[in-house]
Design brief:
The complex is a heterodimer of chains A (507) and B (529). Chain A has 507 residues and is mainly α. Chain A contains 19 helices and 4 strands. In chain A, the strands form 2 sheets. In chain A, strands 1-4 form a two-stranded antiparallel sheet. Chain A has a two-stranded antiparallel sheet with strand order 2-3. The chains are: A mainly alpha (507), B mainly alpha (529).
Amino acid sequence: MTRVPSVDWVALAPVVAPLLGVVLVLVVDAVAPRAARLARVHDALAVAGLVAAGAAVTWLAVDGAARSTVCVPGGDGEAGLVLPSCSYVVSDLTLTLQAIAVVGALGCLLLAVDGPAAADRTPHHVLLLSAVAGVAALAGARDLATLVIALETASLPAVGLVALRRDAQGAQAGITLLLTAVASLGLLLLGVALIHAATGELHLDRIATALSGPDLSGAVLAVAGLGTVLGVAGIGFKLSAVPFHLWTPDTYAGAPLPIAAFLAVVSKTAGLAAVVVLLALGLPALAGSWGLVVAVLAAVTVTVGNLVALRQRVAVRLLAWSTVAQAGWVLLPLGAAVDAASVPTAVAASVGYLVAYAAATLAVFTVVVLLARHHPAGEEHTLADYRGLARREPVAAAVLGFGLACLAGLPPGVMGLVAKLVAVRPLVDNGVWVIAVIAAVNVVLGVLYYLRWGALLVAAPGAGDGAPVTWRVRPAEGLVLGGAAALCVAFSVLPQVVAGVLPGVLR
Amino acid sequence: MNAELLDGLGWLLPVIVGVPLATAVLLLTWRTLSDRAAALVGAVVATAVAVGAVLAALAAAPFDPAGYGLEVDGSWIPALGVRFHLGLDGISVPLVLLTALLALLVCWHLVRSDAAPARRGLTACVLAVEGGAMGTFTALDLILFFVAFETVLVPMWFVIANWGDDTQPERSTASGATLPGGPEARRDAANRFILFTALGSAVMLLGLLLVALRTGTTDLVELTERSGAGMSTGVQVVAAVLIVLGLAVKAPMWPLHTWLPPAHTIAPTGGSVLLAGVLLKMGTYGLARLALPVLPDGMREIAPVLGALGVAGILWGGLACLAERDLKRLVAFSSVAHMGFVLLGIASMTPQGLQGALFANIAHGLITGVLFLVAGAVKDRYHTTDLVLLGSGLRDRLPRLGWLLAFGAVAGLGLPGLAGFWGEILAVVGSWRGEDALAGLARPLAVLATVGTVIAAAYLLRVLFLLWHGPRLLPGTHATTTEVDATGSEVAVVMPLVLATLALGLLPWLLLDVTGPAVRVLLSGGVLS
């Protein structure tokens, strides 16, 4: 008997709202194609879609009811009572990840509206909102099929966004990203298929139950383990974890800057969401195995990202490598998982780090976008071009300096310090000392280049600099600048936000 | 003392931490403020903070029996159990007062140094360092301590990197390698400082987290009461190694001290004073406040190593000083030696040793302050601190500066009657009696440390000899400099330190009575002799 499962649209509102925005933007475009005077309508619809998604997330969080939808009923199975399983669950985890994605996407959208998006409003807004819908769905996805489809919905539009810059470099970046996406999809599908083959289940909670049984054959565990490794590798591309990171610097440098910010904030959120959903919810029983894999992956990612970032002179490339390193930091706590019981704290630490990372990265990217727009070298500008910025643009320099301090994890960026502390805590708790020491060393590597950049802001302007251009900050950009800075400051004063995400049961 | 009058002054603690930090932010953002006005604002705020610190100290008195005379406690990061818990007891009061005094003097010194560029930023950095140090010395929560500990890093890095001396000549090391001079030396010194100290902090954080996770609390009062209960010796040893490593970088302990000489040499006068008088103390304070009472078993295991490395620092620093020509580098190396005594005193885990360590902490802050201020004044005049170039008869040419330098040197070699004497003698006595912690090393270390005091006498007498009776100058070396003796304001900045050195030297119980009861509490789980 097949049944159409009932759908709780309220629970799905964070996914549906951006999609509604997509539809409306397309309708307006169909009614009045290429109408320049409707540009603001496009923008308003896209912003409204994200704001509505944000409002839905807020409402669901305040409401606090445990919601889930698209469920298959339980019943008496062969092995006893089977609980109903749902494909989409609203939980603290879901809402937190959705909130990060929506806020980050809103920032990137506002940065892009009069920049790279100006020439292609419809495609830009449609692609961006679709990707956000994908991340929102991914955060709530609780079965393998939904997971894969949502992850692809979140990542494929990014290819289009990157290619919006219609020149050779943009095309190159788009192709790189596309090939990466396809390759990673292949790995992920293979991994997911193996997990399914091993357990015979699609729903993550049932997979978890199946794998935690007392009498599992070695073959089942081997197949599931192989599937896990392949799945992690597939998602590793999205997170740009070393050795799956090679696309990152070229894509960041080739993409329009607000899109690079989108990759850094929203796509990273998607990657972490996929890792957490797959590993923590579906495979907690195998935590002992994937914990080690993730730990090594994270340690290598942090180290390589930091070491290469140390040598970068072009601001965007430095940021690209720094996001590689930060992706490693996001993954580090998951590497501390040694058994099913240690998974929830590890996930909370990862997501907490992601919160801090997203806020700080958005702040830094905003200033980089502004400087690129006012600099003859554009996106190719180097760190040296920040020399003396504090004299010319004190507010932007202050925001950049604070954002960098947060990324480095040094006061005044208390938010970043607490995030690093939260990330290292599970490693210490579970005695993963090698990785913990590697993390400690990496704090210092990061400090070096973030501080070097920060120091340039207050350095005396060099002799060779041309006449400085006075910045004209657009209202939308000013909003992002102020908003990101406010988040960084607020989280620094009240680090509880970073340390206290996901207090309850992981579901 | 005046219990009713000074009751309910707990709010003073967040004020002496927060006001310098807030003023630093204000100075950084107030772009139209002139340099001189900014320095004045800084000096006035530092004065107000010093008054607040004195009031807080009075309110926290009496210090017998031990306890936190002033305390504030509020929720901060409930998810990690971290509280905004500040308190003042006999261990912290002397360091809070020292920090307030040094910051005050440095700020007034800045008001008078018209030649220094961009004093607005420098004043802001000095105040930020003061605020971070105040937080470190009053924090009663592991993580809050760590945050405050880290707060001083970035401002101090800027002090060295932006206002440091970029006219250092190239130097060649004994091994024949050439060290760069000029701006590159400055950048190198600043980076070395932050690399070493940030790595130390990161390692310390691992230890702090281990303690927090195994005990379930980050509150220092509770952890001190438990005195290691709840942690196996193995856990304690691991945590102690991590925490001591982190703090030893800051202290600094030989062989982790190599960031110190360049940082001290290149930092501007005020920066050197704060570095020596405040930052180094954060390391040793952490050992006394955190490591000893929280991890007594772990500390007992590693005490012999800590003590031996402390003594190695005493000897190595002293020997380096014997060969050093540059006055600022010499003071820096002597700092390594003096802090070696502090480490030895702490490692002895005896009341005498710990008392001595805390005393030597304060004495070193005062005496090194005198020496760096004088060295800075000499540098302003001759643009060098090379003892041989400064040459003979400095005392005759500049009698006031010469006398101040002589005073600093004599105090530094530990002459009885001056502050430097008591801390070191107590540390040595503590080591002699510290057989419980130092085992067989107790007496050899005490003897070697005494040898160190002889070396200290030798190198400081050498300084005096060079400056009073040194070889004749090459003609023309000073032809362009007009020789002006210490001005009234320069003397006024140094005098409080001189007077405090004398006072503590003649009346040591002023300090010993304050720290004594608290020391007994810190060691209550450890060795009581």
